[in-house]
Amino acid sequence: MHKYFFKLSLPAEKYKAFYQGHAQNIQVICSEGKSLRFPANAIRQFLTSEGIYGDFEMQVDENNKLIGVVRRG
Q1: Which of 34, 51, 65, 70 could bond 12 through an S-S bridge, CB–CB 3.0 to 4.6 Å?
Q2: What is the percentage of the chain residues whose pLDDT exceeds 70?
């Protein structure tokens, strides 16, 4: 298993595009400088009326298949 760490500041208005079907993935730059793309529904549980904000940890298996995302701190 490998872990990637990233910060996310996504206002609710921008996340709305995922609900409307205009976008399916989110792309971030992790703390290592690597670009990560993952399904928007992987962070849906963190959505509030203001959006999604915070520090996150993404876990992937040895084949880079997403295991999960958790909020840190």
Answers
A1: 51
A2: 100
